Amino acid sequence: MTQTSLHQLKTSVDPRDEFKQLYIDHKKHVFAMALSILRDFELAEDILQEVYIKLYQYLKSNQVTNVRAWLIRVTRNTALDLYRKKKRELTGFEDQYFERLEYIFEDPVEKIVLSQYLALLDSGERQIIIMKDISGLKHKEIAKIMEMPLGTVLWKYRMALKKLKKGLE
Amino acid sequence: MENEKIIKHLDNALEKQIPDVWDELNKKIDQLGDNSMTISKKKSFSRRILLTAAACLIAASSLAFSPVRAAIQNVYDKIFSSEHIDDSGLKSALINGLGQEINKIYYDKDHDITVHFNSILMDDKEAKLLVTFESKKTNLKNYYLDLFEGFTSMNLVVGNEERKLKNIGWGSHYYDEKANKVAEALSFESISTFQGDEVHLKLKDLTIHGNNGASRVETVWPLDFKLSKEAVGGRETFDVSKEFTFKNETYQVKRVEFSPLETRVVVTGTDIKPHIENGVAYDVFSKLQLQFLNARKIDKEKGYTVDYKKSGVFLNSAGKMADPIFSKAEADGPRDQYVLYFAPIKDRQNCILQVGDLKIKLR
């Protein structure tokens, strides 16, 4: 496992470019996790920035053996904190939600899949799908992050896929 | 659709939604003040020393506040009945003479902060403690006595037991930049049952809402006084049964309550219930609450004000509008009902609730 820190990065050509590479490599994992918890694109964008600033500051004096797992864990905590703060403003998920937002979809199936994913699955199920299938974490790692028994994670993962599949029929 | 295909579509869909925030992020990193991105050990050490020093300062301050003899004779600072306090109920109660003088002052030498407890007033559901604090040296812009989401707490001491009193809404806060003075109308659960008795309160900790989150100045201010009848206002409650439909939801007005601090209209409705997600119940806005908040305007100087040009929920009493009290619009309460808060009204027999274009005669 490679270790990353800014001390290490400074030996490269341009440390900011190295950090940018971390941003490019993992931004999807951060954004997808934040969106799964918050179901709000603007807030997920805020989290994306906040988490990378946290990473930047953390790397100044620490080494991270698995940047992706670190980012996912910090994103989850940051998004859950924001969700708790914002809960008074949540109105629940609305049918018109997607109509209010500008989406870039070439494929209409993608839009349906994403909308069903956000509408049908609960927060825990969405997080597990993202960590397993988008970020490629092992169930064992997910169990650790979610603080859940491995069996519960496996069961929830299967249930989530089943629910999504049924919703798309 | 097969699982693999579903995941592929989801992956593609997410990929296309990711905003490119690199430029903005890059700027923010620049603003962090250490563009080099290389942190020397010496610098890290200095930072640690600074943090330790700050921690010591806060620890020391917890003992530094000491009471001094009150020199201010006013019952309450006039700022509490000014336009800077966004609670028309409080202003009305003060103008009508409700309140008991506390007039106790504490001074913190380390931070040069003088805290003045002005007065207290209440009805049977809510107490208001009027406090100001000022400083010549410490910039108080980010200093709050925040019972709602800060570290500050109001505690009632009975015998050997201490109980944290619940906050009611946000309370009102105003920072006078010129005078470097903060006025806070703290709002918490009533202690009116102690009328005629000695009351022991402890207000703990100042909250600093800085750019890097909240921190605290640890302190304890004891307030001991005999609660007089001048501080306590009564409440009249009338059961009502009026049903109306708004945006396809059915609501029922159950009760109207009148006190010198407020008018409460208690409502139940088909969408006034918690939102369950992942087995956790969250309080969410009903359509009626959203309509109530629609006329809320946020003013930097005056806090929450009312925009009567916008559609909202208003209370008309004998032809006069009672201002909505927005600082309590998100106060905790039973999850199956919502309380609309308005300023106190004089004519309690003639009240019309206006919800958008709907008019509901309450009494």
Features:
heterodimer, A: 169 residues, mainly alpha, Rna Polymerase Sigma Factor, Chain: A, Arc Repressor Mutant, subunit A, B: 363 residues, alpha+beta, Immunoglobulin-like, 2 domains, six-stranded antiparallel beta sheet, five-stranded antiparallel beta sheet, 5 helices, 23 strands, 18% helix, globular
Written overview of the protein:
Chain B: This is DUF4179 domain-containing protein. Chain B: It comes from Neobacillus novalis. Chain B: The chain crosses the membrane at residues 49-68. With 169 residues, chain A is mainly alpha-helical. Chain A contains 8 helices and no strands. The longest helix of chain A has 24 residues, at 15-38. Chain A is globular, with a radius of gyration of 17 Å. Chain B folds into 2 domains: 60-231, Sandwich (Immunoglobulin-like); 236-361, Immunoglobulin-like (Sandwich), CATH 2.60.40. Helix content of chain B is 18%, strand content 41%. In chain B, the strands form 6 sheets. Chain B has a 6-stranded antiparallel sheet. In chain B, strands 5, 6, 7, 10 and 11 form a 5-stranded antiparallel sheet that branches. In chain B, strands 12-13-14-21 form a 4-stranded antiparallel sheet, with helices on one face. Chain B is globular, with a radius of gyration of 25 Å. In chain B, 34% of the residues are buried. Mean pLDDT of chain B is 83; it is low at 35-64 and 67-75. The chains are: A mainly alpha (169), B alpha+beta (363). At the A-B interface, α1, α2, α3, α5 and α6 of A face α1 and α2 of B.
